Amino acid sequence: MNFSFSLPLKSSDLLNSSGDNYYVKHVYTSDEIPDKLKECRECLHKDDPFYILDHFDTYYSVMECESSDISAMKNLSRSFDMLYLTVDKLGKELSAKLSKDNNAFPERSNYLTLSKMLLYLFTHTMKRIEVVITNRQRELNVNAVKKRGKHHEAQDHQFDWDKKRGQFLVQMFNILQLPLEKLWMPPVVDSNFVEMITERCYNTISSIPMRADNKNVIDSSFQIIGVAIKRYSHAISFPVQILYILSRTEHTASSIAHGIALLNEECGINTAFSVLIKDITDTLTGESTDTAVSRNFSNFLIELAARSPELMIPHLSNLSEELLNCESHVIRNCILQIMGDAIVGKLTSEELPEEMKEARDDFLDLLLSHICDVSAHVRAKVLNIWHNLKQENAVPLSLQIKVLCETVDRLEDKTAIVRKQAIQLIKAFLECNPFAANLSLEELIKKHEDEAKNMNELKATLAEEREKTEQIEEQWNIILPEIVPLIDENLQLQSTQEYETQESLEDLVKGICQLLLDKKYKEAIILLRKVDYVHGNSELRYTLPLEEQVTYYVALFKTYIFLANGCKNDNEKLDTMIKTVKFLEDSIEFSKVLTRAVPKILDMLLSKTISDVCEAVDLFTTGYLFGVKGMEAGMQRMLLLVWSSEKEKRDFVSNAYKKVLFTTDLTGRAHAVKVIQNLSRFIQTIEYGHFLALECLIEEWVSTDDMDALIIQVLFEIFTMKIEGTTTEESCLALELLVMCSSSKPSIASANLNIIEMVGLGERGRRNPRLYAKCLQFMMNSIDHTANSKYYQRYDCDSPIATNVFDMFMKFFFHPLLPDFELVATKTFEFFYTLCQKPDIICQKMIVDLMGRMLKSIKKTTVNPSSLPSASQSMSSQPLLPSQNKEYKTMKAFLLTRFVYIIGYITLKELIFLDVDVYNNMKYIQELEDCELKKKEHSALRKNGNLNMSATESLKRLSGSAAEPQQEPDEDLVGATAEDNIAELINEICEERLLFDKKSLLRVMVKLVLRICQHPSKFKEEHLQRAATLTLVRFMCVSSKFCHSYMQLLMNILNKTKDTVIKSNIVIGLSDLTFRFPNEIEPWTGHLYLTLQEQNEEVRLTSVKMISHLILHEMIRVKGQIAELAKCIVDPSDDIKNMTRQFFKEISTKSNILYNVLPDIISNLGDINTKLPEEKYRTIMKYIIGLIHKDRQVETLVEKLSMRFQVSHAERQWRDTAYCLSLLTYNEKTIRKLIDNIHLIKDKVQVDEVYQSFKLIISNTSKLAKPELKTVVTELESRINECLEVRDEGDEGGENNVNNVDHGSNKLKSQTSQKTTTRKKRAVRRKDSSDDENMSLSESDNEVPTKTKNANSKSTKKPQNVLESSSSDRSESEEELPGRGKNAKQQAASRPTTSKNRGKIVEDTTTSSDDSHPKKRQKRLDRR
After folding, report:
1. Which of 107, 256, 426, 1250 has the most CB atoms at less than 10 Å from its CB?
2. pLDDT tens, 846-898?
3. pLDDT tens-digit map of 261-305
4. Contact 1050, 1033 (CB under 8 A)
5. Distance between CA atoms of 590 and 1392, rounded to whole angstroms?
């Protein structure tokens, strides 16, 4: 061979001749290549690899062919296969040649040239194949996107390249295993040769992501690199190549981490890793580090730490010092994650060296400190790391409380992902907690006190015993020199001896001590040996030398002396008690932290973020299942989410309760019993207000068969007490569950009516009124409300079941100690009106019977007026109708209270009965008659589907349709007139007859109720007043006429009473009246808002609920008065606060309601006369303004708030307005608005707080802002700075400049002044007219006026202030009702005409225009 081969830098260099180096003489075309490859194959079969020297050009031509068609790919595949076989033959020959001991052999240069040429062709053929396949794949992807191209044609000619790649790498590994250095002189392998081989390995690592099916390829690549590092000086190039790959590709982090771990385990290479870590650190700490590079390096370090933590731990301290201060949160997360993995993987053992323990403690401290990192990503990551540590039991006990405290603080983090991770970590603490979390804090404190007391007592006892032991020790040391020779002497004389004794061990020990005290040492020694013999230790002693036997008996003497004196070693017991006390202290701290966390997690249940709600629900569910105290509150609060508008929240809550209540490890009947026990136990813990939510859940579970037939059957067995050992309480709970189930599935009740009647109306029902009431509800649930028609079979008035219910209620009514009377009465009358025919007849009969029996119980007493009890005293009886003489008729208060209550409830049920049932029945009959007349049965059937509408709804619908344009009448709608007539008839009955007809029984009852309400000084019993007020409200729901007449009486009761129950009932009643008679109630809504300022929390909560309900249903207009509701955002009560926040959140999603009233809220709350603290004002505004997101709304708000600076004159108002501006989110337009209105705030920015608010606007808007926005912000900042410079020119000059800055500003002030003057003039006119109206009211007649059209037209007028109304002294009023017979002129003469002393509240609603009407005057004269 007369030439050599030099590895070219690029393949084209081989086309040029250079000295004796080999060069390519001929490059074959695509048509020539197949024939040349056949020649190569023939030569290959001769088993001589040197054929490459003659056919190098052929393989070179295949490798350099630029075509990517199918024929080129076939040529490449054939070329690769032949080269593979050739390399294999070369490897075998080199193995035989190089295995010899001599370093030089004759064919060395030939084999070196052959190796270079063959491996060059092999590696570059592989490279070309990879390029072609990559290009083909790219073309296929492009065609797939464009939906064109014949994919199958390319796929048919694909070959298994992954397999061939693996074969190539294995062949390269086998070649490098040979001592190739012997081919070179001196024996050092050319670095270019090594780089040529390893380049393919690096390319393979960077091109394919590691999977299970190609793991062997990655392993082979790193094995080749490992051989190159160990044998061919590749250690310097390795870190450079790895860094390059990591910085350019994202998917290689896992494969490189795997490969480095393999190099460490199989090849023992770790020095290169140290260099790699140093280079990575230098790169990451550089200023120009790319985010993608940081992420790739971080992923690699995390992967490596997870696979080989022992490699990372030595470098971790330096990494933390260098990288934990980087700005990139990705890098910090990486280092902290590595610390967590290192602790879990290698640093959990207690047998670690001190250095490792110190490193572990440092890592834990760093993790703890970064819980409060500035980046939310880092905070979330660290909490996740602690969560992992907790699950692996790698958190030391001494750190658990600290970690939990920091985690609880993160529950208030502003970022949702941090809050989510915090809750998950707290959940992990509950699941794996080492403390007694199943005990309450009070129980833990008590137990700790007891254990601490016992420990102190034991310490005192041990101290006494220690003193006693020291004294005995001194005495023993005195006699020891005397007794040792005697023991030795005794053992020499009597080395072996047997003893017999009947004495106990305790007596023998006492005898020894007595002999020692008497200094009879020899007798003591003999007795000691006897004790030792009795114990059976003598044979063991014989094996010891004499000196050791003496020592043995000396120790035995000492032990028995201490035992005889009662000295015990209780140090172990003391250590145990100390550990117990310390454990209880930690448990108390754990419980305190957990207690602090519960309110925060409860607030998260009402969060807008779904992840917060879901995690909070999951935590409470877990805690409840683990029996953790304090979780019950969360389980109850979760029930409110059943009403959430977001389905995801509802489903999550439903699944959580199913997990708690329905998850058992039992099957069949045992599972049903366990589920019922869980449900019963849960029902006992929830509050009354949560029953509706639970009922909604149970209805869902019944519909989904979670509560199947077996559970229902077991419930009936418990209810009927067929299961042995069932208690009355368990039976009632089962009945409660059955009632809830039957609400969803009426067949549960309808199929078992006989059982329900037997239990509820039998002996058990008589003994338990609550059971009786629940059974009535159970029977009412038998009605299928899902049907199109509401008509079903009702009981006759004289049916046995109706008679039975009637009789039982009569007995309950007169029972003085009956609990839950309201429940019993409510369910009884619901039963009559739901399941009985002619319920009004039944109720009328009941009222008459009750009145008859009550009149018989009236007592007549003659007393001196001075002896009557005062208003502050409780009265067991109440006066009925007063008379002029001294004889009073009294009745037991509880009977009158119950009677008044049922009157109101019957009235309400009668209204509903007429409005719905009677109306639908009459409409149904009318439609049947029309069908018979017109022979349109199909039309009747179609109309029957709409028989669930009330008369009130029908009137509203018809009145609404009457306002629409007239069209051609539809034949199917001819019956609308009849429907209108029916609805008007029902309405006329309610308005005119029910309460006002002379034959109506309720007309008599109205007088009684009004009497009680108007004279609270006579009827002092609080329950009676509550019942009378509630009944009055129910009367007002019946008739708008009655409502209008007695609205002022109701308002006076609301404003003057101190009974919170009455106030709450009136507020609820006003809400109902607003829905029924909105025009009558609209002038009085101001009084409804005033209840938001009540001192009682329950009244305020009720007001918030009712006002929110009315506004959300658009029953009252949202005006400036909503500012009173906004104040409830900072209410001391959490319930009121949360409900108000939820309300504003709801209205923010409804059109522009919140945006429209926001200026009024800002104005009213910013009024200095309201004296609202600035801190509370800011809390309110921060929440409300945070609900405004639309850019257009923000832009308008900026303009309105800027204008407010000019019309406000107090510095506090300027601060408030500036703060509101700082809460808005700004864009380029809104900043422009501020600049345009800068003349309005020039003199206001001199106030430091105002200036700070504008600085906050500038800083917040500049963050992450676009260049255009930053330009505008800079302009705003310069304009504000100009405003500040104005003041510096001098106080007077500055003031003049501020006041005369802009002509438009002065013009605006002038306009504002003119408008203010105009408003003042209008206010004066309104005041004059109001005074005239009040004067006419004070001079009006005392009789109740008859309602006319004129009165109706004035019903929408704003009424006079109730605080100045005529019933301010209603408690002392003695006036008669209309028609009582007392002369009206005498009434007018007997008292002044001022409104203060008038007794009849309703008279104030009369106006002077009513008096001037001649018909009304005539009617009044007739009545007189």
Report:
1. 426
2. 999 999 888 887 754 443 444 333 333 333 445 544 443 444 456 788 999 99
3. 899 888 888 788 888 888 888 888 876 566 888 888 889 999 988
4. yes
5. 71
Amino acid, single-letter form, for residue 1089: Y
Q: How far apart are CA 1107 and CA 1116, in angstroms?
A: 8
Angle between helices 1001-1014 and 893-912 (to 10 degrees): 130
Q: Which run of H or E residues covers position 486?
A: helix 441-493
**Nearest CA to 882 among 1012, 972, 791, 755?**
1012
Q: Which residues of 1124-1138 are buried (b: 16+ CB within 10 A; e: fewer)?
A: bbbbbbbbeeeebbb
Q: What is the pLDDT of residue 468?
A: 72
Residue with tokens 């005397």, as numbered in its chain: 482
Query: What's the Cα-to-Cα distance from 110 to each of 1, 3, 5, 53, 58, rounded to whole Å?
Result: 7, 9, 10, 10, 20
pLDDT-derived band at 146, boundaries 50, 70, 90: low
DSSP 934: H
Beta-sheet strand order (sheet of 877-879): 859-862, 887-892, 877-879
The helix/strand/coil state of 439 is coil
Question: What is the Cα–Cα distance from 536 to 931, expressed in whole angstroms?
Answer: 115
Q: How far apart are CA 1104 and CA 1096, in angstroms?
A: 13
Q: Token pair 């934990």 is at which residue? A: 324
Q: Are 775 and 809 a contacting pair, CB within 8 Å? A: no
The tokens describing 700, both together, are 């869902």
Distance of alpha carbon 382 from alpha carbon 368, whole angstroms: 8
Total Cβ atoms within 10 A of residue 911:
22
- For 760-780, give one letter per residue: b (16+ CB within 10 A) or e: bbeebbeebbbbbbbbbbbbb
C-alpha to C-alpha distances, 498 to 494, 546, 554, 556, nearest whole angstrom: 10, 18, 20, 18
Neighbours of 323 (CB within 10 A): 23
- Residue 868: which residues within 8 A CB-CB, separation 6 or more? none
Closest Cα to residue 19, out of 33, 34, 3? 3
Q: pTM of the full predicted structure?
A: 0.70
Q: Comparing C-alpha atoms, which of 1234, 1242, 1241, 1251 is closest to residue 1287? A: 1242
Contacts of 78 (CB under 8 A, 6+ apart): 37
Residue 666 neighbours by CB under 8 Å, 6+ apart: 674
Look at residues 766, 757, 642 and name the one whose alpha carbon lies nearest to residue 699: 642
- Whole-angstrom distance, CA of residue 1240 vs CA of residue 1238: 5
Reduce the secondary structure of 964-1024 to three states and give it as a string: CCCCCCCHHHCCHHHHHHHHHHHHHHHHHHCCCCCCCHHHHHHHHHHHHHHCCCCCCCHHH
What does the pLDDT read at residue 697? 92
Identify the pLDDT of residue 222.
Answer: 92
Using an 8 Å Cβ cutoff, are 577 and 455 in contact? yes
Q: Which amino acid is at 231?
A: R
| Residue 834 CB neighbours (<10 A) | 21
Q: Which DSSP letter does residue 877 get?
A: E
pLDDT tens digit sequence for 539-580: 666 667 777 777 777 777 777 776 666 555 556 677 777 777
Rg (CA), the chain: 49
Tell me how far apart the alpha carbons of residues 399 and 882 are, in angstroms, rounded to a whole number.
77
Per-residue model confidence (pLDDT) at position 1125 = 92
The enclosing H or E element of 891 equals strand 887-892
Alpha-carbon gap, residue 62 to 41, rounded angstroms: 14
Query: What is the DSSP pairing of strand 859-862 with strand 887-892?
Result: antiparallel
